[in-house]
Specification:
Layout (H helix, E strand, L loop, with lengths): L2 H8 L3 H9 L6 E2 L5 E2 L2 H15 L9
Antiparallel strand pairs: 1-2
């Protein structure tokens, strides 16, 4: 799925998705055209991060 779809599903800004991608927490596949293809696993992981952040826990728990 596209980053736009991830934004709409999770109600988070594109910058947040890119941040966790840059940190290596999610690893979307790159298409031949250079666009990212986010998996359901990436979305689930981002959902977990959102929940952890809301209850003031560290994201390092996922490591």
């Amino acid at each position: 799925m596209t980053i736009k779809e991830v934004e709409q599903i999770l109600w988070i800004p594109r910058a947040t998705v890119r941040f966790y991608e840059k940190e290596g927490i999610i690893e979307p596949k790159r298409e031949k055209n250079g666009y990212c293809d986010y998996s359901q696993t990436d979305v689930v992981r981002l959902k977990k991060i959102i929940i952890l952040r809301k209850i003031d826990l560290s994201v390092n728990v996922l490591s």
